[in-house]
Batch of 4 targets.
Target 1
Amino acid sequence: MPKKETAIGIDIGGTNTIFGFTDREGNILAEECLKTAQYGTAEIFVSALYKKIQAAGEKIKEGVEIKGYGIGAPAGNINKGTIEHAAGLPWKGIVPFARIFHKYTNLPVIITNDANAAAVGEMVYGGAKGMKNFVVITLGTGLGSGFVVDGKLVYGHLGFAGEIGHTAIKPGLSGRVCGCGKKGCLETYVSATGLKRTLLKIMADSIEPSELRKLSFDKIDSKIICNAAKKGDPLATRAFKQTGQILGFKLADVVAHTNPEAIFLFGGLALAKDLILDPARESMEENLLGIYKGKVKLLESLLNTRNAAVLGASSLIWSNEKV
Amino acid sequence: MPKKETAIGIDIGGTNTIFGFTDREGNILAEECLKTAQYGTAEIFVSALYKKIQAAGEKIKEGVEIKGYGIGAPAGNINKGTIEHAAGLPWKGIVPFARIFHKYTNLPVIITNDANAAAVGEMVYGGAKGMKNFVVITLGTGLGSGFVVDGKLVYGHLGFAGEIGHTAIKPGLSGRVCGCGKKGCLETYVSATGLKRTLLKIMADSIEPSELRKLSFDKIDSKIICNAAKKGDPLATRAFKQTGQILGFKLADVVAHTNPEAIFLFGGLALAKDLILDPARESMEENLLGIYKGKVKLLESLLNTRNAAVLGASSLIWSNEKV
């Protein structure tokens, strides 16, 4: 019997790195995890990661044939195969990640940022199957985005396309301080952290009672705000509404630039579903030019599960084969 | 001797339609004009236009072989070959322009909006030769844009990509009323008309003397403001500065979405050169995420002459051959 063809999807995060063996249909045959920060250099990390992948592969009964390694990482640059100045990772500067990986294998090693990986995942396994023009917005601690135009990910001149999280919501370098050094970036409003900042503002401005007033800033997270909103907490509900409105406002720009068929929301905040989708949709429609009105779908990602990042990363290998 | 290969470039405007015979190097062998509004229906217009093109071709001594007809028109839709609800044109509704044209010829007839035609022109004949990722912004009465990603024009799902003129400069549906029915659209600030509106505001808010105070709103145009600014008129200078600043602010979004190598400004307002380019560049840089800073060129179009629209339209035929 021929061995099962699999692509390895690797999702590198600041705390955990998760990898999985994925088949062409998006089934994950095995998945394991290692602690990213435990390895002082990228060389030591890759050595441990590669060893762990091979060991995991041997445990899969039917036997697997690995077709390549797809990697989603913050600040991953597909053109150069590097991870460049990733704020959340232990390795500083420009890390030639694909080159290090190629010490161990001659198979394809494709690295890109996590939002781009999510977009390819949506195209290969998710709601964007068959779509040629769409955008995926990842809502986690920050806000990432991946643009697909004419069936291909947009990388742009330097490989850095799709950073709508750091577009400003108004002119004049005003608004909330962002980790990137600028002010008023979309991700300071629309992300798990942005939602919390908005909640705090609403809490300060209003006098309505709320269970959330008992919790410190550090204790509150988007899940807590989501649960409160579902129970009818007025502050939490308003925080979601404002977050969705600002998202919709900037999504109208995304539509005017690239006219996608659909925009998918992916990640923790998107799990709040209509709490964020409804106000975002309404605000996007309000801000759209007539020719686009009612013609762009705003949807939750079909991959919005815990395996999505691994699926997205592995899909880089399958989508690469077709080119 | 073989006949000279030419593409016909047709620039359809509300007042005039200009067409030209263009060779592969961007030389215009002949150029003529007809009055768009003189023809009550698109059928009558195309009949007259086609006849005039053939007559003009016969006058070219060396003889020409026409390879196709490229058309730039407001609201031109390349997917459907239509002109759809063009505000400035005499024919209402959805006009199946390419289909009408094909009654007379079996050669390729390619129609797109004027900003997209300008972008292809920049790629084929202008400053974007050899570039794979760039954006052209056309600054006329309104503001149009054409995005090129990976060597190809971005049309998007419905063929309407590249409408940054109708993205808003701040949230909340506030700001200047736009002809499109929305408020606060970029083109109400950044365009010949936008510049004039800004000048009027500055005139109202300040007490400085200016020659421009002698002129009515209807009399003032961007050329007059440009000449005044060059002579040091403080109001005109400030109007250009503010216009450039708002443009730069929104260009930072363009960069974050598609990471172009360069952005070209085309059209009347771009003839003001540094008056608009300098503040736009400064404001764009201020608003860019670190990874893009100093890496995106903001330039005047190399085609910024009177023939540019015809060149852009004709380039649709040459660029189509390569596909």
Target 2
Amino acid sequence: MTQRPAAAAGDKRRVASGLWQVTENDLESIAIGAGILGTGGGGNPYIGQLRARQAIRQWGPVTVLAPEELPDDASVVCVGGIGAPTVGIEKVRDLQSYYALRAIEDYTGATATALISNEIGGSNSVEPLIPAAKAGLPVVDADGMGRAFPEFQMKTFFVYGVPCCPMAIADEKGNSAIIRETVSPVWAERLARALTVQMGCVACYAVAPMTAEQVRQTAVPRTLSLARELGDAVIRARNEGDDPRAAIFGTCPGKTLFCGKVVDVERRTAAGFARGTLTIDGLDSCAGERMVIEFQNENLIARRDGAIVCTVPDLICAVTIDRGEPVTTELMRYGLRVAVLGFPAPALWAAPQGLAVAGPRAFGYDTDYVPLAV
Amino acid sequence: MTQRPAAAAGDKRRVASGLWQVTENDLESIAIGAGILGTGGGGNPYIGQLRARQAIRQWGPVTVLAPEELPDDASVVCVGGIGAPTVGIEKVRDLQSYYALRAIEDYTGATATALISNEIGGSNSVEPLIPAAKAGLPVVDADGMGRAFPEFQMKTFFVYGVPCCPMAIADEKGNSAIIRETVSPVWAERLARALTVQMGCVACYAVAPMTAEQVRQTAVPRTLSLARELGDAVIRARNEGDDPRAAIFGTCPGKTLFCGKVVDVERRTAAGFARGTLTIDGLDSCAGERMVIEFQNENLIARRDGAIVCTVPDLICAVTIDRGEPVTTELMRYGLRVAVLGFPAPALWAAPQGLAVAGPRAFGYDTDYVPLAV
């Protein structure tokens, strides 16, 4: 998945060699694709889409730069939302990521020249578009996860040597803080999460600028393009009466782990996360079997009749059987007919350094990572 | 109490006109006086004394300046501890207030020329001595409360117009954060408390520098001298077989609210505070009666047989009957024979602006403030 090609040459959205622009027309596709890559989390993609639409309508489209197109002296700020998706659908974000961007610029004295998404999943895939549109900045076609993860430190940037501090965090009321220095990225998560809970369980952050070289070395590339392509493929399949899952796998190799009906969702908002368990009873070829998925904002581990079939950092995503619509954990509900899809993790996560931060043991599961075979 | 005179002329500790120095010999007196003014909180005064002793032994005595002796271009940083005193007696602070001082200097670009205590109660009375000794800075003979209060925003500085942000907060591990901007001082408390809980329920903070004029206008003056004088008086009474309470009231006008034996202490460490209730059964002239005191780090409200006899912002302090030794809420225990003393609040608190921030209603009690008559 990390080797996905850039948008095809001749794409009408390219505005210069290697560039394209995110317009209002791209947002539905990106929301679908980011819903799939979000593995259940990353914030509600539909609300993210609406917010990004408003920003682009008000301030204009946003230019997308591939990592290799960044000027060498670029100052790239990672922005993202933090909190519980269950809260995010009621307490919709405003310009918090813009406030966080300004706060980190003020703190570091460096002016951002491009923004990058913390994670390509859910609403976080489009979160940078909002401050980018407002500030007239480009976004990078890459992110820090290639999927979504629940915790701040779980970014390829930090795994591969980019400092996680200083970082700024801001809410919609006018409160902002800088996490200045921490003994580890996990401590940055602890402090940021505590602030987020006080801020109402929904906030945004901005990390001190990265260089172009750091982005090239540590980001998961081409993920905004991939999200758009995934969404394009799903929409095309719907329009043409094709199987949405075949369209998804044609764009991003993966496999169906299970098909069934959601029979139980146990969900609680705790410690600044949406945590819970999803139970699906099999249909068709899965009849008589049961899949149980545990989630912390994102789907973490899937068991079929008790046997583990997929774990983080591989992607576990539920889509509706009929339309291939991704269903995030905060909207999952009894009765939905879903297919559970699995996709191999980006190579940066499947490496030992990646697994130490976001493998099954990092989430407290006493099991080794077994890469999903597709 | 805010009108206490400066240390008497000719005091051997004066090193220049209007100046004195805090030496190791002053610390026992300050600890006793700050224990009384701390109204049960402010952090354990004995541990504060030991920490200040170590700092002065290592880096030398600390010069004390009256507010009017500050140069007009002074840059005065308020430093203090934050957290639950119940935790502070097990997790002893180190140089966190020094780290917080350096963090706020780094953030604001201003170099401190003097330090001031956030509150004259408990260990916070001497907290500034530690970074002051290490950094070679003077401390101001004043503080932001003239007593102790549990919450960050409860400072005369902020009540009378000094901004509470930016402020830095640091732990002993190497984590630090800046609370950059908040919509109110109460929000600064909320964010700082959340960080403190993560940092292990004990941390230190430093507020962006005040000017000399701001200190003169908003601080409660002469309180470090008052703490030392109170302690001197108690020690003198003990040595000479006099009544310690008479010595206390001779230095700081007040009255005995109750005398009795502690029969119950209900105490819990919750939300970054030590909260609870203290029950005292009367002895001697109070026999047959009962006093119940509710506390949140500090004693907040005292009821005698159900009738309120003293509330914040007036000072409610328990001292041992025999030695006049103040007993803080984290060390209060069954069986102690204590006198409960009341002192009128500093004038800055008894004013309407002060009561709005730290009167009984600010703590959720449905009662008006009735000034203690002495």
Target 3
Amino acid sequence: MTRTIKLAVVAGDGIGPEVVAEGLKVLDVALAGSDVRVERTPFDLGAARWHRTGETLTDEDLAAIREHDAILLGAIGDPTVPSGVLERGLLLKLRFALDHYVNLRPSRVYPGVPTPLADPGDVDFVVVREGTEGPYVGNGGAIRVGTPHEVANEVSVNTAFGVERVVRDAFARAQARPRKKLTLVHKHNVLVHAGHLWRRTVEAVGAEFPDVAVDYLHVDAATIFLVTDPARFDVIVTDNLFGDILTDLAAAISGGIGLAASGNINPDRTTPSMFEPVHGSAPDIAGQGKADPTATVLSVALMLEHLGLTDQARRISDAVAADIAERDGAARSTSAVGDALAARVAERVPA
Amino acid sequence: MTRTIKLAVVAGDGIGPEVVAEGLKVLDVALAGSDVRVERTPFDLGAARWHRTGETLTDEDLAAIREHDAILLGAIGDPTVPSGVLERGLLLKLRFALDHYVNLRPSRVYPGVPTPLADPGDVDFVVVREGTEGPYVGNGGAIRVGTPHEVANEVSVNTAFGVERVVRDAFARAQARPRKKLTLVHKHNVLVHAGHLWRRTVEAVGAEFPDVAVDYLHVDAATIFLVTDPARFDVIVTDNLFGDILTDLAAAISGGIGLAASGNINPDRTTPSMFEPVHGSAPDIAGQGKADPTATVLSVALMLEHLGLTDQARRISDAVAADIAERDGAARSTSAVGDALAARVAERVPA
Ligand SMILES: CC(C)[C@H](C(=O)O)[C@@H](O)C(=O)O
Ligand SMILES: CC(C)[C@H](C(=O)O)[C@@H](O)C(=O)O
């Protein structure tokens, strides 16, 4: 019996299409010879569409995307579009509309990977970033704009419902990992209302996971440990904005954003989850075949894992680890990296 | 003619009193033989007072502190006090009531200093963190607390008045530095209202400083550069929360929070400015003579600079640089470090 995965492909802007092409190449190889087929639908979303039509994501686009099992996204954003238009109107709209409340971002220092740290230690943690609340809700506004009396506010909205579900997901992930450790990162000494909600929720949900050790760090202190002792972390759970900041830093210390994968996941599986590299559209190197597609390839692995195709996911991440171990710093084109990874995955396909 | 500086001393909690004692020791030596006298008033503020009286900072305390020329603060915070009580009720209350809108935090990698980075490069930048607005205003609240329907909000408030004055201060500082470069850090693609106010303000004020080069980074990208290329920064201007996060990270890469000094400055000089190490009260090592007082000593140097005593300030920072260059990693007690720094400052006192 053949299983068909309906995949919505949002290649996006800048280097997005280049890295997505390699992600799909590796995906095809990983599934070759299996009973799983992928049916891809490309979605023309991003800067070009906006310039042409003024549209970011229409109701029709969203309805069509909902008919899929997963989304692979390259990168969104372009300096020719006013800041925020594509981020709020497309990328965040997808995350919010599809209720991607778990933004999953693993960090691992692969043997041989270049890192700015003198001695990173054995780094292997995952950030569970809340994806549908916090300062990202778009609940801001301004009065007297452009005058000396302007006031611009941004509201971080946090609900028991929203915090509890992501915290429970993070505990479950921690419980399934060998070290079973969860660190809440917030700033409850300043953001007392939101912070105390997070804190109480971790305490309450933690009672259901007695075998998971719980730790707390203020966000400022967490950045210190991410550079002085990143190996201490196992699962980090945090809000949308702190998660944004911490995961870029985490990427920087573990091989750079060229390697950082992410999943925007709806664990309830009522909507397609979305997989994307953490990096942006990098307009400065777009179209030059210089982008590293590894983060997208690892995002494909996260997608396969989410879809229950654990073996195929593992083959991809093993291929990446093997490739990284042999990298010598010489520049390779985007497609050369994709080819190399595809070849390694092919080697690993069981006969 | 003798000049008298009225100094309010808030030693605070944990290691606060220990490091403040060394800061004052070095201050005395730096001013010895000059025509500047320091008249100190200790203020009993912090956890012990709160436990005894339930008070954090009374109107009388504040009125008395206002009568001073400057404040030296050790550290505030204690795990026996509910989170937020002393931070909001004392530390942030001082910063807000005294309108410390420039939170100045220099970062320098002194030769010989241990850093977690393999190759930090020539790091010498200063973060100008806004100190009286943003998510720190305490404009949050929650409903249905403790129920499954709780909603907890935190409001970031940003005004043209507040943003413009700190941006102007940052530009002036950039102009006075050899590299003349200013980097705005924000997240204007998500926090569009606040972000665009900051952005427009930097553009407008920048027109008055045509010789200062201006750059922009999203806060997540800024954390990447702080570990991959911190030498690129000269002056960073940013909001209260981003500044909190970036300065802890900056401290971590440039020798640790044992060295990070800060000034909470009111450039209009209508109130006393406050100088404090970036580190916290570190209850785990309090009372053991293990805390490094260098950050407090460097905060004293910032204070002297603010008070126009530039030569004395320089003697202290030179003494710190010389001491760091000869540190061999052997543990020294808090007072031993203070003594060593005081001795070096004494050597430098002009005959
Ligand atoms: C592009 C931007 C809106 C986005 C975010 O802030 O979430 C990005 O930084 C990310 O981390 O995926
Ligand atoms: C103690 C806390 C309220 C404070 C802050 O967040 O500003 C501290 O982290 C700092 O950076 O001075």
Target 4
Amino acid sequence: MASYSAKEIAEMLKGTLKGDDSRVISGVSSLKDANESQVSFLGNKKYHHQLAPSKAGVVLLSKDVENEELPNDKTYIVCDNVDLAFSQVIGLFAPPSVEYPRNIHPTAAVDPEAVIGKNVHVGANAVIEKGAVIGDDTCICAGAYIGHNVKIGCGTLIYPNVTILARCTVGNKCILHSGAVIGADGFGFMPGPQGIVKIPQTGIVQIDDDVEIGANTTIDRARFGKTWIKSNVKIDNLVVVAHNVVINESSMMIAQSGIAGSSELGRGVIIAAQAGINGHIQIGDGAKVAGTSGVAKSLPPGAIAIGTPAETQREFMARLSLPSRFEKLKKQVDELKQKVESLLK
Amino acid sequence: MASYSAKEIAEMLKGTLKGDDSRVISGVSSLKDANESQVSFLGNKKYHHQLAPSKAGVVLLSKDVENEELPNDKTYIVCDNVDLAFSQVIGLFAPPSVEYPRNIHPTAAVDPEAVIGKNVHVGANAVIEKGAVIGDDTCICAGAYIGHNVKIGCGTLIYPNVTILARCTVGNKCILHSGAVIGADGFGFMPGPQGIVKIPQTGIVQIDDDVEIGANTTIDRARFGKTWIKSNVKIDNLVVVAHNVVINESSMMIAQSGIAGSSELGRGVIIAAQAGINGHIQIGDGAKVAGTSGVAKSLPPGAIAIGTPAETQREFMARLSLPSRFEKLKKQVDELKQKVESLLK
Amino acid sequence: MASYSAKEIAEMLKGTLKGDDSRVISGVSSLKDANESQVSFLGNKKYHHQLAPSKAGVVLLSKDVENEELPNDKTYIVCDNVDLAFSQVIGLFAPPSVEYPRNIHPTAAVDPEAVIGKNVHVGANAVIEKGAVIGDDTCICAGAYIGHNVKIGCGTLIYPNVTILARCTVGNKCILHSGAVIGADGFGFMPGPQGIVKIPQTGIVQIDDDVEIGANTTIDRARFGKTWIKSNVKIDNLVVVAHNVVINESSMMIAQSGIAGSSELGRGVIIAAQAGINGHIQIGDGAKVAGTSGVAKSLPPGAIAIGTPAETQREFMARLSLPSRFEKLKKQVDELKQKVESLLK
């Protein structure tokens, strides 16, 4: 197992070391679980009380913690960006990543009319249909399904058991996690003379570059045209993106959130876990929707929305405090009643 | 790429043409994104303001829009059912559907004791276990798993990476989207002398005809007997249907909604996105449950339920308006107090 | 089909028989659907009204129902634990379980450097990567993916199309249902100089013994260290467990619930359907969270939490009754106003 001195780590992080620089560190852990040969971190004064009881040998500190009282049984490294620094340290001790052999596994079923780039991995029992095009340096892991005429860019990682259906496109340097389904039919039906009629879903899903899609998330193909996930969008697990949705650059949808048909998220929007966005609405750039909220109407840029139906934070807090304010008001009314009764006597 | 004149399109739709009937159209788009060689539609007066700025060459109109002011740079086709008409036009320009070869891919693992009908597609790396029966004209796409003694009707489409577990049945002309899991064990446990004991789940899932099941949706097998999805039911993505649930004809469950054990939906019920239905309750025919609602008790036929716990729309609106009504009442009480104080002086 | 007399069933259950002990029973059903040759059960006085109209030949009763009025057209068997007894009877009539052949299917792709125990089933088109270790008597069903260096214990059942990613571990006698994804990357990003930067997720998921994981549920790998599911935990379908979560012994998470990063559930906690647990909080032993609730803050042992943000049951009920209490108060204020006006005249 790799090991480094506190001094070596501080140099790597370009951080300021306080205390014994000869400590030897062979792993990372949380403050709570760390032992003397592990490095941990404290990024927020709020958790300062966890510092004293921790057994961590070395602790990375953000600058706002630096001036707090620091127990002298530990070595500290003060960093400009403690989150980034800790990620670097994690990397030092991380096991090597899986190496995917750059060839086509003999059990994979690759259609002769598919086009496979250079340095591509196609895992065991993966399926690549006719007309699909796979860019250089891309990994199609075991059991993944790449449909007819699908186009995937370069350096993209498709994890095991992902499904990408006909004609959809995925850009460069994307990561699609296991169980994600790209391009199932949008949910569209209308009443017909003999019952419910399916509305054909003839569009595609277009995923641009540097997008990450979580495990078992589903992104439906458009009724026509495209459902469009733009560059740098990050989507967590078990999220639903309905047909004809547009998600603009660098927006995030957290686990189990959903967005209904034809709605659009601006740039840098954050939809927190389990929140739902109605169909045919616009969420402005930089808006934030709190977890479990239900957003029925469009939101302006920068809005913060919470609750169902979603309100401003102020409205939400006012609603929350209503029961206690009601009790106070009731008491006042009772007192008034007594006074009025005494006046009426 | 196919192209048609406005006249040809109007004839096909049996619609009434207004304006230049010679325009040539080669695709479909939304009002917002359309160009001069594309057809779009306006089905609702509410969106009338989108008409003027649109560059669409041809616009399909519903009859209620026909008498509104119409910019004369476009050709209009007035249709009885604009939704249906637009679907037909989409069909004109849609790329050809995937053609599944009607044979068994050499990498598929079909048990010799499975029975495969005529004109059946079994895709690459699909698995069909012993005793399974697949009806004529059905497609079992790549990577799908068809368990022991499963029965699937005719003309059904099982998308890639669907899982159907032992003894479950699927009717005719159904569509099961990728990642759907039919027949996992219901979630049943009881306290036992040495901890939690699993309650065996020995029933099946029965899916009748013309049912559509969304991507990554799960329908659990019954504890005994069957979980039953009746004809024409349409279920969206990431929905949970628990053991022993019955969903009657033509009901819909939208994305991320769920229904707990032994509950029953009547006919034509709509459960909107992210709503939850408690166990052991009945939802009457034609009832509608709003998105994100939590329904704890049975609902009568035709009910409209909203909120958690679900209320009538009137109750929900009353609850919504409570904060502003509270402020008004508080002001009145404050005024009363002053008056009473002046009387008491 | 198997059949048994009421007497034989009563003896097997060690229950007390009331009525005709010669009735012949060949199946199980609910009170509502049962016929004369079926056995049903009544475990709760609350459902006593279902007894008279039922056609069941034999009904299992819990002791609290025994002294209620019992229609004399049926045979009754009074049982100490009617739920357990009914499960035993279901077992009598259940179809035989699927038998998985104890070998490696020729279409499975098992890396030569994987270690496969004795009496193991590896289904068609399953994939087992380099360095994986599979314990004795374990079933890896068709289409499942077992990643590099994954370790799985003995007697565990991995259903078709499950995905377990590199280095994760699963204990003995676990059941993982179809579509579950174990060990996808946790959702971790931070703002960087050129946009969003992915935080490496280098830890694992550790699942201990006797754990059950529902269909299409996702459990993400830790940022470092492990996401930890301890013994006897039972997780339902479409649940999200985020990175670095710890779930202690015998806790349950019901369908579509979720728990955010670094939070911890105590022992014997129940998180009901669609509920969400915030990140970095602690839920005490034995706490119960109601369905659809959103828990923002830590809960003490034994807490019962309901609503969003979660409150005590008392607070929740107070909030629920607010609209009707408001109307009453408003009426009182109106009356007071009139009285004060009359005094001021």
